[in-house]
């Protein structure tokens, strides 16, 4: 279940893990943020298809996840991760690239591209269950309550997906469980729910979405699950309406991770978008 290449870079003093496959125009893949999330769990099944289609797929592990160093900046956790990722991509010297982010990766990607001076040199973007208001609801609390057991991982997967097929697949659950056991990974993922005493507004969830989507200037594809328990109904329509050049695909019978729950459809939709928009942007 691994991609074709794995290597490490030292970026800002942090040992940073990267998966790579293929050659050609670069596509940077930004993974999600649940327990056990990493480049391998989000993108390993997609990367060979990108390579076969003539793209250079690059999937770094975020700071605090996978096999990248386990560091959390409690004063600015999101900003620190985003700056480290931008520095990682810059160190790889990829030039202009397409960026694809799912869940946390998509939300961070949107935040970056909406800034006056984005850190990512993106010519096109794909947001998969990313962006919009992130409610602090029962589903969110379920996936944050993880005891590092296989049963706990199966419960998280059952919450994230509309279908229980993968949550009932013992081999898949064992793989995802193994990925969650990287030293320090549990602590880094758990940090998102910490609230200082007496601060009901603490933690990363349930806060107003201040992203200025109108500032995103690159062609953007949004992919959402119609049955996503971690977002409010219709959130993707609202985000897409605010991005000047946006396309929206909503998958029926799909939860929070369309790239994993519907991998064939997502692969085809992603390659179609990249072929139509990314290659056009590169040639213009």
From TrEMBL:
Q: Which InterPro entries does the UniProt record give?
A: AB_hydrolase_1, AB_hydrolase_fold, Epox_hydrolase-like
Could you list the residue ranges forming a coiled coil in this record? Answer: none
For this protein, the record's Gene3D superfamilies field holds: alpha/beta hydrolase
Any one Gene Ontology MF annotation carried by this entry is: catalytic activity
In this protein, which residues make up the domain named AB hydrolase-1?
Answer: 27-268
- A single Pfam family it belongs to is Abhydrolase_6
Q: Which domain of life is it from?
A: Bacteria
Q: What is this protein called?
A: Pimeloyl-ACP methyl ester carboxylesterase
